[in-house]
Amino acid sequence: MLKKILSIFALVLVSSACLVHAQDRILVYAAIVDGDTIPYFKMKGTTVSGISSYLTPEEIRKNQKLIRNVKKVLPYAKMGRVRLDQIEAAAAKMAPKDRKAYIKKMEKELLGEFTDELKGFTTSQGRVLLKLVDRETGLTSYELVDEMRGHLRAGFYQTFAKLWGYNLKKQYDPIHSKEDNLMERVVLSVEAGKI
Asked: Is the residue at 94 inside a domain?
């Protein structure tokens, strides 16, 4: 008789444990993709808050010079991107010989149009302009000159730029460079009208 009671007790314990585990299970929809069954869950939308890429009031106060420089040179960088896109689109349809002459002609036009304004830039504004041109076009100034005018001209410009403390090969990297990250946040704040 004791054996029967222990057997019934064990059966009750096992069945109650199975019921507990059965209550923990959730019925979900699934999709079969390439033979694999992948669960499908509907989730509510989520808003991320508290993370801002804009400058704080304290950062605005500390970086007035950078903000002033970005505000002054950002329109030139954006205009440079638009002009570069126009030149590349027109040059892509030309024969290589005609392309070279066209690029030379456009360089003279651009120099004539902007030389006086760019001469008025300070050294720090020139550095900011080089970085923002890289930001807008995805190419360093050296790569742009190399692509448009060749290695010799790019090397000449790089050598000349080094004399004045510039580096045309330096890439804009807001992820790994604190200086570029700050500049990116200034640009985003200016574009959003926050400063």
From this structure: yes
Residue 166's domain comprises 73-191
What's the rounded Cα separation, in Å, for the pair 124 and 164? 11
Domain total of the chain: 1
- What 3-state DSSP class applies to 121? coil
Would residue 5 count as lying in a domain? Answer: no
Instruction: Work out the burial of residue 99: count CB atoms within 10 Å of its CB; fewer than 13 is exposed, 13-18 middle, 19 or more buried.
Output: middle
Answer yes or no: is 88 within a domain: yes
12 part of a folded domain: no
Cβ contacts of residue 77 below 8 Å, gap of 6+? Answer: 129, 132, 133, 135, 136
Tell me if 169 sits within 8 A of 158, measured CB to CB: yes
* Tens-place pLDDT, residues 38-84: 876 666 665 554 445 888 889 999 999 999 999 999 999 999 899 88
Helix, strand counts (H, E) of the chain: 8, 2
Cβ atoms 70, 126 nearer than 8 A: no
- CB neighbourhood size of 181 (10 A): 14
